[in-house]
Amino acid sequence: MITLCMDTSTQYLVIALIRDDQIVAKFQEKCWKKQSEELFPRLMDLMKEAGLEPEDIGQVVVSEGPGSYTGVRIAMTVAKVFCAMRNLPIATVGTLQLFAGMEPRARVVLDARGGRVYTAVYEYGVLSGTVEAKPCEEVKAEILEAETVIGDGSLVGREDHIPDLAENFLALKDQWKYAENVHLVKPEYLKSSESYLPHHQ
């Protein structure tokens, strides 16, 4: 079965086509504020590269946020419409979870704008604690010297480290959260003063 994976919740556009346990085509590139323009052309290019037709897609996995308000909605809307029209399964992963992948232990830091970041710690893809939106300086003070930082590390005194998100979609396969009803799939938005536990925790 072919699984279509998509993420537009950050400045990157990420698309992956997975056949069973193997990625057959993938795309990851900075497309800040252009994801809506680039998503379909890039997807069509990948499908052509893999020799696939839209009818070959058997399910869709999409990131649920938190992230850019508009960005999160782009891939999720496409995924929901596609799955609703064809009665296909749909699953989600958290955006920070996607960045963490299956690292033994890592803190993910993603730009939340306004001098803040979304941050959380994951162990082998499982959230340890909560996802929060906090001031950059506060997070910088919290980070341990030996701690692995993934994402927009330069905002908290570390180097940026952007992983292969297509590979992480696949690595997290056992943690894809399937929805009983496509219409119940909603983005996770996080205000600057909030924290949350994802629905599947």
Hey, roughly how much beta strand do the residues contain? Answer: 25-35%
Kindly report the name of the CATH homologous superfamily of the largest domain.
ATPase, nucleotide binding domain
Domains (count)? 2
Tell how many strands the DSSP assignment holds: 11
Q: Which shape, going by the Cα principal axes?
A: globular
Helix percentage range:
25-40%
Category by helix and strand content: alpha/beta
Report mean pLDDT, rounded to a whole number.
94
Rg from C-alpha positions?
A: 16 Å
- Assembly form of the protein: single chain
Count of DSSP H/I helices: 5
Keywords: Transferase
Domain Gcp-like: 32-125
Organism: Stecheria intestinalis
Protein name: tRNA (Adenosine(37)-N6)-threonylcarbamoyltransferase complex dimerization subunit type 1 TsaB
Topology of this structure?
Blueprint lengths: L1 E6 L4 E8 L2 E9 L4 H16 L6 E7 L5 H18 L3 E4 L1 H6 L5 E8 L2 E8 L2 E10 H7 L6 E3 L13 H7 L5 E2 L16 E2 L5
Your description of this structure?
It is a single chain. By secondary structure, the protein is of the alpha/beta class. The chain folds into 2 domains: about 1-95 and about 165-185, Nucleotidyltransferase, domain 5; about 100-155, Nucleotidyltransferase, domain 5, CATH 3.30.420. The chain has helices at about 35-50, 70-85, 95-100, 135-140, 165-170; strands at about 1-5, 10-20, 20-30, 55-65, 90-95, 105-115, 115-125, 125-135, 150, 175-180, 195. It has a 6-stranded mixed β-sheet, with helices on both faces. A 5-stranded mixed β-sheet has the order 9-6-7-8-11. A hairpin with a 2-residue loop joins strand 2 (about 10-20) and strand 3. The radius of gyration is 16 Å and the shape is globular. The model is unreliable at about 190-195 (pLDDT under 50).
